[in-house]
Known about the structure:
The structure is a homodimer. By secondary structure, chain A is α+β, with helices and mostly antiparallel strands. Chain A contains 8 helices and 10 strands.
Amino acid sequence: MVGRLVENLELYGRLSELDRRAIAALPLTLRRFEPGEDMVIEGDAPSHCRLLISGLAFRHKTLRDGRRQIMSFHVPGDICDIEGLLLSMDHSVSALSRAEVGFIPHLAMEALLDGHPAISRALWRTELVEAAVAREWMVGMGRRTAYARIAHLFCEMYARLGAMGLVENGRCRFPITQTHLSDSLGLSVVHTNRVLQALRGDGLLSFRGGELIVHDWPGLQAAGEFDPAYLHLRSVAA
Amino acid sequence: MVGRLVENLELYGRLSELDRRAIAALPLTLRRFEPGEDMVIEGDAPSHCRLLISGLAFRHKTLRDGRRQIMSFHVPGDICDIEGLLLSMDHSVSALSRAEVGFIPHLAMEALLDGHPAISRALWRTELVEAAVAREWMVGMGRRTAYARIAHLFCEMYARLGAMGLVENGRCRFPITQTHLSDSLGLSVVHTNRVLQALRGDGLLSFRGGELIVHDWPGLQAAGEFDPAYLHLRSVAA
DNA sequence: CGTGAACTTGAGATTTCTCAAGCGGGGTGG
DNA sequence: CCACCCCGCTTGAGAAATCTCAAGTTCACG
């Protein structure tokens, strides 16, 4: 159940057997979410952490008039609302696809962190990587064209999913709509659609029915000015 | 020397006398940076943490062709490269104004964190707040007009500086150029300049020679769609 | 008095947006 | 089993925001 979490935490350094056993012993309540369903809402002060076990999720803020900004995507092994441990939520988290989520009581989490500095440090590190990703998104929204921005996002997800073994033969599932894509990148759906066609036309990728196919990985990286260093992964999808 | 840091860490909950004394006992080497000088550079793997003692600093990434994106501003009491403790730097940090910086060896920092869970937690919380600010910037760059974006940034800094007691009579020092402003918000200098004039013309603020004067705080907040909740401050400048 | 950085202005070029409408497939009720 | 409907995708076209280029101004500083 927590396999992906341990994997995630061990990306940069092994945990002790003791640490691993403590994680495995976490009390976990399972729940399933349907696509689009909210897992936490802005303003909540959650009493549990939500560990994504299968499926994808995303963080977002929605303004009064309906404009929405998606701020990150989450893959299995991520805790989607870790900040809820210390702060109230200033944004919402929703399921992208059908998702299985493990609920871990804050009390258990706090005990785990206080008793296991190595886990605390590893979890903090995943947090820092998330912040690095957020900064890279800022660079994109502030300083890159729509074309580069879209290319970059696909590079990022391709690399992240690849690192989890979810890329096969240049293909991976990435079940988002063009609306999600637009809301991630700060674009209109219309423009996103046209730029997507350009990327396809340039032979870089196809994206259809929630499946991403990368036809020209070096070309796509160049188009997106993608340098995976900020992901702090150990290896990158070939 | 570390007064601001303790203040910062105690924003949400007191530390014990023991914790406070441990912080005060940190070995600290002082160094001064001139405006624009780099404190850490992308790619560095620092061996010390940089605690900002006086002055302002900012994080940024610069692309090959010179486009730059500023990703955050830092005030006294912030550790500007805390992620260097666990990761290599994927961006640079530079001094905005003349700044005094305390260098703390990573070894001392690690010992402090491992021995004092409360400090570890408090520091993590400041990190989470930073991430929240980053998300709000994303909303701005993705979904707000230049006018709202500029207003919002000034609201944010006014609130943050106000919370530190650095606002007096609706005025505060915020020593950035219009170029910095543009690079923070993903705008061209020309456009920034014109929008700034509009904000001044609408009687919301003046910004000249690195001094921000807020003439109409409610109006400015409305223009920027500013809701300080994401800053997770205890109080907001009046 | 000369110089450079920051700021300002003008004007045309681009990117991206908005509005409006048509298309297509999967799901549902009759 | 079929018609209908909705959501997501696509296209067209004019509008708006923002950018780039180019030059002029101001002011602090040496």
